[in-house]
Specification:
Radius of gyration: 25 Å
Protein name: FixH family protein
Oligomer: single chain
Largest sheet: 4 strands, antiparallel
Low-confidence stretches: none
Distance between the termini: 73 Å
Number of helices: 3
CATH class of one domain: Mainly Beta
Pfam family, one: FixH
InterPro entries: FixH (IPR008620)
CATH topology of one domain: Immunoglobulin-like
Keywords: Membrane, Transmembrane, Transmembrane helix
Helix content: 25-40%
Structural class: alpha+beta
Number of strands: 7
Strand content: 25-35%
Organism: Sediminicola luteus
Length: 151
Amino acid sequence: MKINWGTAVVLAFIAFISFILFFVVRMTMDSNSNHDLVTEGYYKEELGFQKKMDAEHNANNLSTKISIEKTNLGWEVRFPEAMEPQKLKGTVSLYRPSNKHLDFDLPIKISNSNLLIPDKRLLDGRWDITISLEYENKNYLHKESLTYIKN
């Protein structure tokens, strides 16, 4: 059976389109390529963006900044000593970019100016820490990316 050049071109186009469609269907059905937004309520969070910017500005203007230091027991978050610990309200959120199931929040309940994030809650790798707190009706927001390595 002899195939002329016109038929060969049509068959080549059909083969190419089938090849592309096969990969499109395969990638949409594969659970490994399921890419979610960074957070579940991404668009809702964007509405409060100006408030976040103001809170970050307030945190950057503190005379003593919020700091995070590695200790033998985990991470120690140090708040400015000028702030009374009983008046601090807020949360410390730890976000793991590689696995959303490892994310967790800690409420800020302290008796001195330090908060310990225990070693047993942390795995080696990158963590994004967001500290949002309210002190005397003023909001503060501190964000930092850290790499945790157990001793």
